[in-house]
Design the sequence.
C-alpha cells in the first residue's frame, strides 16, 4: 500500500511538473507538447495531463484511506478477515438489540395506553419511528442498551424510559432518620 501510494504520488508530481514546465519552462517541453498531436497548441496535452492528475488525486485519496485502514488493523493486531468477523458479530448483536427494542417498545406503548399516558405512548411511537427511519436515536425515549422492564436493572426500579420511577421510592440522596 505504501509503495502504491508513493508511485501514484510520484506520477502526479511528474505530471504537474510537465504542465508547469509547458507554461513556465524554457520552451522545450512546450515545443514537444505542440508537436505531439501536430496541432500547434498545447491544449490537448495539458487537458490529458489534467485528466490523469485528477485520477491520480482520486487514487491517492482512495488508496490512502485503505492504507490508513490497514495501519489501524495492524495496530490492533488483527487481520482483514478478523475485522470482517468482528464487524459481522457486532452487526448481528445490534440487529438483535434493535429487535428486542421493538418488542420492548410495543410493551411500553401498550402499558402507557393502559395507564392513560397517551403523550408517553406517542413519544415512544414517534421516537421509534425517528430512530428507525432517520437514525435519530436521541429522539427515542428508550435506550438500545436498556434491559427488559421486568428485569432488575442497576437503579432497581425496572423503568426503561425517561419518565420518573413510580415505585414510591425516591432516590434523592436524603434519608429520613
Sequence:
Amino acid at each position: 500500500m505504501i509503495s502504491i501510494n508513493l508511485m501514484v504520488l510520484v506520477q502526479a508530481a511528474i505530471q504537474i511538473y510537465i504542465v508547469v514546465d509547458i507554461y513556465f519552462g524554457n520552451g522545450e517541453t512546450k515545443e514537444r507538447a505542440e508537436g505531439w498531436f501536430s496541432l500547434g497548441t498545447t491544449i490537448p496535452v495539458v487537458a490529458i495531463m489534467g485528466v490523469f492528475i485528477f485520477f491520480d488525486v482520486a487514487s491517492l485519496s482512495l488508496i490512502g484511506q485503505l492504507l490508513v485502514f490497514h495501519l489501524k488493523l495492524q495496530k490492533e493486531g488483527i487481520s482483514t478477515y478478523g475485522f470482517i468477523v468482528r464487524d459481522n458479530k457486532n452487526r448481528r448483536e445490534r440487529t438483535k438489540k434493535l429487535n428486542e427494542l421493538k418488542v420492548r417498545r410495543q410493551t411500553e406503548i401498550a402499558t402507557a395506553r393502559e395507564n392513560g399516558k397517551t403523550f408517553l405512548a406517542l413519544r415512544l411511537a414517534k421516537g421509534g419511528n425517528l430512530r428507525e427511519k432517520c437514525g435519530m436515536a436521541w429522539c427515542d425515549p428508550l435506550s438500545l442498551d436498556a434491559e427488559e422492564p421486568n428485569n432488575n436493572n442497576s437503579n432497581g426500579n425496572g423503568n426503561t424510559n425517561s419518565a420518573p420511577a413510580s415505585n414510591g421510592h425516591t432516590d434523592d440522596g436524603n434519608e429520613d432518620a
In short: The mean pLDDT is 82.
